[in-house]
Design brief:
The complex is a heterodimer of chains A (382) and B (576). Chain A is mainly alpha-helical and 382 residues long. The radius of gyration of chain A is 29 Å and the shape is elongated. In chain B, strands 6-7-8-3-9-10 form a six-stranded mixed beta sheet, sandwiched between helices. In chain B, helix 4 runs antiparallel to helix 5. Chain B is globular, with a radius of gyration of 25 Å. The chains are: A mainly alpha (382), B alpha/beta (576). The interface between A and B is large, with 35 and 39 residues.
Chain lengths: 382, 576
């Protein structure tokens, strides 16, 4: 029988205790299909969804093109529409042919090259097109309208060049830096990595801690010499590593499968991700310590971490265009700092002043969560 | 610490949760080293709270708990380094193997590396788990889980071992093993606290703290407690017929404190200085002799005696004609396989009208599977079951209309009030109009729900929950009543009341199928089937089963002795 007071306890046995907790957690992760599901399968699904399924670009929009008067010039303009990668064109002679299609949504718009077109053009006036769109879908309507105009403008320029006529006095040429093709996949995929780490850091962590309370294993642990801090740290380290592993998998897929450029440094990537896991894990711990119930914990994690990471982080919706109050709220969403930073690492390169601010903000939020979690996880029941 | 000083001192402890009456109400007590101290009481008595206070995981509101000389509030860490604690729920990791759990706890408790091989060897030997070291803890039987829990709590010989209901969910054989292990530990000077709701376990303890509804009823040795009813306990034997009516008559006698059926005998606790009366129907006087008093006799005596023998529920029951020879519940070769695991293997029995039939066996033996097949909740793989003549495969709905079912776990709607639950279940059973009103009114009267009608069912104390569950099951006056562990965890007074109702209903021709792991409750049954590993290994009346195992060393075996002997016999047969 050898019981020593805790203050004489050797450092070695404390280290062994910690190693034992980490080992136990790792066995559980490997053996529990649900952690593999959340850490590896779910990220894959999300990444494929954003890589292939969701795209904020519109291409191949179906329109009806009405040529009221057949002539070489109008045919030429029609060819301009048909060649555009933004449109799939059905050609007709009368707008009535497409009216029903527009109502039923079979075409997104009708572009009419009117009879007056030839006359206007010949007279040197700016020729007008008529564009009919479905106003109940304003995004698409805008899109059809703008691209139709752009196509015409393009065509005019082309003709002037070809015809050797004088080119327009000034023509503005847009150039997009960092994402020259403006492919939305290139900024959605880095953003979805933040979503994935939110899932592993907050959802999975809150579930596994709540499970220990539900199954009674937490009570048995607490009655051993283990301290609350050791218990929490032993829980965090494995999930920290799991989160980074999951992130690494996502980055490899993003770069090698989806061809997203990676212009920054690996060091910046890991520094940002590791910092982001602090608030994510802290929030997970806080949720599970407060609820001690898997169902509640998962609901809370989804509402307080997953949805904000989706909606309030600038991932899908521009923060600047949100109402002011909502903009304030975004400041406490850790993903708001990570997503632009990750997009920068991928598409632009290392911009340390920006990363520094993001890291500081995430550390601050993280330490608040940890302080609250430590307060509510004392070695006490009830 | 000097020898003889108590390991635990509990001084005037109060603990409340919310607005409920105190979970512990001014408790005082001492726990000594080298002996087993029973923490005894029904569910909700405050046992778990008191153990948690001793571990330092909970703090008392008033008073003080001192463990091994340390205060539980100020020095919880010192206490936790010196005790072993086994919580009520299996606190080990089900997805780790037996050896991995042992390793984890060895590290957590700081068992020096050099001592490990020897300690593991000793504990695996002690718990007989050596064959299972690579098995995941979640795949162990109930008894083996408890043994593993015990092994983990013993890794670094604690001075004080706290066991919260270690006997729950464990078959009688493993329970005996577990008890012997713990007894051996006390010989080394370890103090053991064993909490339990089973009064036979309480009786075997060296001393007890008897709790009821947060109050300490008694502290001292069980012998002292049973002494208060010594010479007042009688066994009236040789009752082959009408034992339920005879018991009811005895219970109505104001001199009778408590009475239960024991096979073909009735056991009575009398008021001081009184004797059981002879039969008033002019038949020959039965054999009558005093017998050894038990813990439960004394407990009921302390609580002021059991309820009378009248069951208003039974009195208002429309009788079913008992003359009908056809059995009400029939099982023929009922078999259920889940994959390659046979949960129930060719179970066959039938129950004539107006009898109680018991399915007895450890957890996981196949009782509940058989039970569920017979009330149409589970489709048998083979064989057939009938209730009131209706085949459960073809006419499951008809059959279910004729049976009342009380599930093992509380299965009413916790968020509905008592009145809403009654009304809902009346509706489910197709009662309406005046009949529905009358039946609900009647249940309210019989079970005393009048003041509780608006209360949420989940806030009722356990005993009342069980009463409500029974009321809901008998609303439609079923021919057959299915009771799955109906009295598990309730206090003995509620258990008596419960059996008075059941006995009364059976006298009116209701047929009852009951599962239980309370060996003494099996004595109420007319016949019992002993289920073990999916098979029925014995079938007969309680006295027949006991007689099968009677020997020179054990002339008057208890139901538990019979159970253990029959199971061991079946295992030997299998091995041969």
């Amino acid at each position: 029988m050898s019981t020593q007071p805790s203050n004489l306890e050797s450092r070695a046995s404390r280290a062994r205790r910690f190693a034992a907790l980490v080992r136990k957690e790792s066995y559980q992760i490997v053996r529990d299909p649900s952690s593999i599901l959340i850490a590896f399968v779910l990220p894959l699904i999300l990444l494929f969804l954003f890589g292939y399924g969701v795209s904020l670009d519109t291409t191949q929009t179906r329109i009806g093109l009405v040529i009221e008067e057949e002539a070489p010039l109008t045919r030429d303009l029609a060819a301009g529409f048909q060649a555009s990668r933004y449109f799939t064109v059905a050609v007709g002679r009368d707008r009535r042919e497409f009216e029903e299609d527009l109502v039923l949504g079979r075409v997104r718009g009708i572009v009419v090259i009117p009879k007056s077109f030839m006359a206007d053009y010949a007279a040197g006036r700016h020729p007008a097109l008529q564009v009919l769109v479905d106003g109940s879908d304003p995004n698409t309507a805008n899109f059809v309208q703008n691209y139709a105009q752009a196509t015409v403008a393009n065509w005019e320029r082309q003709r002037l060049n070809d015809g050797g006529g004088q080119s327009p006095a000034i023509s503005a040429e847009q150039r997009f830096w960092f994402n020259p093709e403006l492919t939305s996949r290139n900024f959605l995929v880095p953003g979805s990595i933040a979503i994935v780490m939110t899932l592993v850091g907050t959802l999975l962590t809150s579930l596994v801690v709540a499970r220990e309370w539900e199954r009674g294993t937490m009570e048995a642990m607490m009655a051993t010499p283990v301290s609350a801090a050791e218990l929490l740290a032993g829980k965090l380290l494995p999930y920290f590593i799991l989160g980074l592993t999951s992130m690494t998998l996502c980055v490899l897929l993003a770069v090698f499968l989806f061809g997203v450029p990676f212009r920054g440094s690996v060091a910046a990537l890991y520094a940002l991700s590791a910092t982001f896991l602090m608030p994510a894990l802290g929030q997970g711990l806080l949720i599970s310590a407060a609820t001690k119930n898997q169902f509640l914990a998962s609901q809370l994690a989804l509402i307080s971490a997953f949805l904000p990471a989706f909606l309030l982080s600038g991932f899908l919706f521009e923060i600047n265009s949100m109402p002011t109050v909502i903009q304030w709220i975004t400041f406490i969403v850790p993903a708001r700092y990570l997503i632009p930073s990750l997009q920068t690492v991928f598409l632009a390169g290392d911009i340390w002043p920006m990363f520094g601010k993001a890291i500081a903000a995430m550390l601050l939020i993280g330490s608040v969560f940890f302080a609250l979690a430590a307060r509510s996880t004392r070695k006490r029941i009830g | 610490m000097t020898d003889g000083a108590p390991f635990v001192r509990i001084a005037d402890v109060v603990k409340r949760f919310g607005d409920a009456p105190p979970a512990l109400d001014h408790i005082n007590g001492e726990i000594l080293g080298g002996r087993i101290t029973g923490l005894v009481g029904p569910d909700g008595a405050g046992k778990t709270t008191l153990i948690r206070l001793m571990t330092g995981l909970m703090v008392p509101e008033e008073g003080k708990v001192e463990v091994l000389g340390f205060d539980t509030v100020a020095n919880a860490a010192d206490i936790q380094a010196a005790i072993g604690y086994m919580p009520q729920r299996f606190g080990l990791y089900e997805d780790l193997s037996v050896q991995e759990n042992l390793n984890l706890y060895a590290d957590l408790r700081g068992l020096p590396l050099g001592e490990r091989t020897a300690t593991f060897d000793e504990l695996l030997e002690f718990t007989d788990l050596r064959r299972f070291t690579t098995r995941l803890a979640g795949k162990l039987s109930g008894g083996m889980k408890q043994k593993l829990g015990l092994a983990c709590a013993l890794l670094r010989k604690p001075r004080l071992l706290l066991l919260d209901e270690p006997g729950v969910g464990v078959d009688p054989i493993s329970r005996r093993d577990l008890w012997k292990m713990v007894e051996n530990l006390t010989k080394e000077g370890i103090g053991v606290v064993w909490s339990t709701a089973y009064l036979d376990e309480a009786e075997a303890c060296d001393s007890v703290l008897l709790l009821n509804e947060g109050k300490l009823l008694f502290t001292g040795s069980p012998v002292e407690l049973t002494a208060r009813v010594a010479d007042r306990v009688y066994k009236v034997s040789g009752i082959t017929q009408g034992r339920r009516q005879k018991l009811a008559r005895y219970l109505d006698d104001e001199n009778v404190v408590d009475g239960v059926i024991q096979g073909e005998a009735i056991r009575l606790v009398m008021k001081p200085g009184t004797m059981p009366r002879g039969p008033d129907d002019g038949s020959a006087a039965p054999e009558m002799a005093t017998t050894t008093s038990r813990f439960e006799d004394a407990f009921i005596d302390m609580l002021g005696g059991g309820p009378g023998g009248r069951s208003k529920l039974a009195e208002t029951q429309t009788p079913f004609a008992i003359g009908n020879a056809k059995p009400v519940i029939e099982a023929h070769g009922l078999t259920k396989r889940f994959g390659d695991f046979t949960a129930a293997d060719a179970i066959t029995f039938d129950i004539p009208r107006g009898q109680i039939f018991g399915l007895l066996g450890p957890n996981g033996a196949g009782k509940s599977t058989t039970f569920k097949m017979l009330c149409g909740l589970l489709k048998p793989t083979a064989g057939e079951g009938r209730v009131a003549g209706f085949d459960l495969r073809r006419d499951a709905a008809e059959a279910r209309n004729r049976l009342g079912y009380m599930a093992q776990k509380f299965s009413l709607y916790g968020d509905l009030s008592v009145a809403q639950n009654l009304s809902f279940f009346a509706g489910v059973y197709g009662l309406s109009g005046a009949r529905k009103r009358d039946r609900i009114q009647l249940m309210t009267e019989i079970f005393g729900f009048a003041r509780l009608l608006d209360m949420s069912a989940k806030d009722l104390p356990l005993g009342l929950k069980q009463r409500l569950a029974l009321a809901c099951a008998v609303l439609h006056e079923p021919e057959a009543l299915f009771l799955d562990e109906p009295t598990s965890g309730v206090d003995p007074i509620t258990r008596r009341e419960f059996w008075t109702h059941i006995n009364g209903l059976v006298e009116k021709g209701v047929t009852v199928l009951v599962t239980t792991h309370f060996m003494d409750e099996a004595e109420y049954c007319d016949r019992i089937s002993l289920i073990y590993r999916g098979r029925s290994i014995a079938l007969g009346s309680p006295d027949e089963l006991k007689a099968q195992v009677a020997s020179d060393e054990l002339p008057d075996p208890t139901m538990e002795d019979a159970f253990i002997a029959l199971v061991q016999g079946s295992e030997e047969k299998e091995a041969a």
